[in-house]
Design goal:
By secondary structure, this protein is mainly beta. Helices cover 6% and strands 33% of the residues. The longest helix has 11 residues, at 245-255. InterPro entries: Giardia_VSA, Giardia_VSP.
């Protein structure tokens, strides 16, 4: 959407006239996410925003909105750096998320002073130095693993747990461990586990390695071949099942 400045009134006009020297400006639409600021959360449909294009807005539950709805939230220039002192909203990737609304209810269970302190069961996130990150965040600050779905952030002596179901305090010497991978990837490795793409076609979840399938993508409900080292499970088609007894009886009567 384009607009101009009406020099007589100082207000925006709907059209521009470049020949007369009008100043061309781009109007920022409300509710829009800034370029390259969208992200996804494993297990939750849709896209969410880290930074809003309108400086007076900020990501609230992942969508750009007026941040004044979050009491004492610290938000400016399209992002939040604090989510108040309450126990309902927590800070997550530049926005404020509520524990009883999606997607916040998939991430965090308990909030203290605007920060997540206890994660939801099987949360796709972990807490590091009082900051909530996705398990798949490979940035230097996060230190997660690519394509990781759930994880733990376990301490060495001198620290406290910060993984799924853990709480956050001052910690030292934590170790990140991926527990499960995103759909289509299998957890590989003994100690430093990584997620590799499943080599079985139409496989949703691989176990122990990328060649052994334990769950198929729809319409295949389960692997059609028992997973063996020499013969990985196949997800080529839906397993055939016999019709219920009542259905077979009706079919028999019709054929008679």
């Amino acid at each position: 959407m384009l607009g101009t400045i009406d020099r007589s009134s100082g207000r925006a006009a709907p059209e521009i006239d470049v020949l007369e020297g009008s100043v061309e400006v781009k109007a920022r639409a409300t509710g829009e996410c800034d370029a390259n600021s969208k992200f996804t959360i494993p297990g939750v449909e849709g896209e969410f925003c880290k930074k809003c294009s309108e400086t007076g807005e900020a990501p609230i539950n992942g969508a750009c909105a007026d941040p004044s709805t979050v009491t004492t939230a610290e938000c400016a220039n399209g992002v939040c750096t604090g989510c108040g002192t309450g126990t309902d909203y927590f800070l997550f990737y530049g926005g404020c998320y509520k524990t009883d609304s999606s997607p916040g209810n998939k991430l965090c269970k308990t909030v203290v002073a605007g920060k997540c302190t206890v994660l939801q069961d099987n949360s796709p996130a972990f807490i590091k130095s009082e900051v909530l990150y996705l398990c798949s965040d490979t940035s230097e600050d996060a230190g997660g693993k690519e394509n990781c779905g759930t994880c733990t952030y376990a301490p060495t002596p001198g620290g406290n747990s910060g993984g799924n179901g853990g709480s956050t305090t001052s910690r030292a010497g934590e170790v990140f461990t991926c527990k499960s991978c995103l759909p289509g990837f299998g957890l590989v490795g003994e100690n430093d586990k990584t997620c590799k793409a499943c080599t079985v076609q139409n496989c949703k979840t691989c176990d122990t390695d990328e060649k052994t399938c334990s769950a198929c993508l729809p319409p295949s409900a389960r692997p059609t071949t028992p997973p063996l080292p020499s013969r990985p499970a196949s997800c080529d088609s839906c397993p055939r099942t016999a019709p219920p007894t009542s259905v077979r009886a009706r079919l028999h009567r019709v054929s008679d």
